[in-house]
Amino acid sequence: MTMKLRGNEFLNGKYTTRTTAKSFLLVPFTLLLIMLPLSLMRNSHESTPEVSSVTVSSSLNSTEIKQCDIFSGRWMHTNGAPYYTNETCHWIIDQQNCIKFGRPDREYLHWRWKPDECELPLFNATQFLNLLRGKKMVFVGDSVGRNQMQSLLCLLSHVSEPEDVSHRYSSDVMYFKRYIYHDYNFTLANLWSPYFVRSSDADPKGHSFNSIIRLYVDEADEAWTSQVENFDIVIISSGQWFFRPLLFYEEGQLVGCNKCGMENVTDLTHLFGYRKAFRTAFRALNDLEGYRGVTFFRTFSPAHFEDGDWNKGGKCVRTRPFTKQEMKLDGFVLDMYMTQVEEFIEAQRVATKRGLQFLMMNTTEIMLLRPDGHPNNYGHSKDKNVTLNDCVHWCLPGPVDTWNEFLLYMLDMESEAYYSSKLERVF
Ligand SMILES: *[C@@H]1O[C@H](CO)[C@@H](O)[C@H](O)[C@H]1NC(C)=O
Ligand SMILES: *[C@@H]1O[C@H](CO)[C@@H](O)[C@H](O)[C@H]1NC(C)=O
Ligand SMILES: *[C@@H]1O[C@H](CO)[C@@H](O)[C@H](O)[C@H]1NC(C)=O
Ligand SMILES: *[C@@H]1O[C@H](CO)[C@@H](O)[C@H](O)[C@H]1NC(C)=O
Ligand SMILES: *[C@@H]1O[C@H](CO)[C@@H](O)[C@H](O)[C@H]1NC(C)=O
Ligand SMILES: *[C@@H]1O[C@H](CO)[C@@H](O)[C@H](O)[C@H]1NC(C)=O
Ligand SMILES: *[C@@H]1O[C@H](CO)[C@@H](O)[C@H](O)[C@H]1NC(C)=O
């Protein structure tokens, strides 16, 4: 497990500290497009996106004022204590248990996200569980998604503890977790599928840290598509695995690769695989006849390796967030972000027609500002001979808890919205 988890995910985490503003301009453009359906659903009497967008911008009223772009803001220093500790929450796995394994600084626990236009409410476990009574929620993707699930387990743990029923659903209980909160009849699960699409080892020497993988980019992985239909809330995300050496197949034919080192195969780069994987995943959700859930798409979570790549001594030793002046969303992180967002916008258009709700959790830039939030070399048990630093996952407690504050905020908005009956109602 350790190898699979750590090795594969520690891929090329390059990033830049340049302060160019040009690429940054690309982003606000899409903001309008994405926020549109969010506004639409609060506007009960409108039926088409085109009409609503006009109405929303021209007639603000108390209901509309209440919504706020929670993703635009800054990290603000606070003296508040974290929601839980390594002593009060037993769900923290060693890889992310930074305090247990000796991380000396604590400043990274004292920053809260402050949206420009409003306050992001504190996570309220009772409120969360009441909202999700009788519901099923699943994280689909890789171990950073699981990182968020484990944060959620901790955030809920002072109100309710679940029963682990993973074995009833999968023989691979390391990768396919399922918990039931009996007091609330709430199911929390994760479905492991870091590529969303069918994959297989292509390396004659078998699977290892950086071995080559075949990706059938137009075939959704049944590991999640066969399970996801019954869930009410699906949180989908993926990232670092796409930087590996990959062979891309479409309609069963090799069409290109990423870093495969084969002269006769076109290098389509990681972005090709990333785009196609999201396209296929979103399409699979839209095509599943029985699927009635709300889909949350959590955007790319940047790594923060400095002084070297993940496998060349790279590390993340900072103890404070970056300011927006110090760190801009650009270069390779922006490329990843834009690629997936483009696919999301298209998928959301199709989903809306089908009556499905697709929402975006826009956390890329927010987390880009948190180089101090990763385990680095404090995230694993000391008796293991691990020489790689983890600048991909997030310490628990840590800034990843903020993702669940966003999640609760969005779910709460969703439940309050009295939107058009054209969209499926989950609450
Ligand atoms: C995502 O959030 C950032 C701020 O962190 C903002 O600049 C950007 O416009 C947002 N993008 C979308 C599509 O909402
Ligand atoms: C605000 O909008 C809601 C629904 O769109 C409507 O029922 C309400 O009357 C509006 N309030 C005001 C003050 O315009
Ligand atoms: C929590 O972390 C501290 C180090 O700060 C350690 O001494 C303690 O044993 C840890 N507790 C648990 C339950 O892991
Ligand atoms: C948390 O939510 C519950 C139920 O909605 C509410 O009764 C309680 O006052 C909230 N707690 C805080 C601290 O806001
Ligand atoms: C629990 O929730 C499920 C839906 O997730 C529902 O089918 C079932 O009837 C509920 N059970 C109880 C005891 O309320
Ligand atoms: C590429 O060349 C290798 C030998 O170097 C060969 O085994 C492989 O079949 C070739 N692949 C394609 C797609 O032509
Ligand atoms: C730990 O790693 C070092 C450097 O790679 C190696 O020399 C040593 O033998 C390893 N120790 C164990 C117990 O595996």
UniProtKB/TrEMBL annotation:
Bilayer-crossing regions: 21-40
Location of the protein in the cell: Membrane
Membrane topology of the entry: Single-pass membrane protein
GO MF entry, a single one: O-acetyltransferase activity
Domain of life where this protein originates: Eukaryota
InterPro entries: TBL (IPR029962), TBL_C (IPR026057), TBL_N (IPR025846)
Any GO CC annotation of this UniProt entry: Golgi apparatus
Domain Trichome birefringence-like N-terminal: 66-119
Keyword Membrane: yes
Residue ranges of domain Trichome birefringence-like C-terminal in the record: 120-409
Keywords: Membrane, Signal-anchor, Transmembrane, Transmembrane helix
Pfam family, one: PMR5N
Family statement drawn from the similarity comment of this UniProt entry: Belongs to the PC-esterase family. TBL subfamily.
Protein name: Trichome birefringence-like N-terminal domain-containing protein
Protein species of origin: Sphenostylis stenocarpa
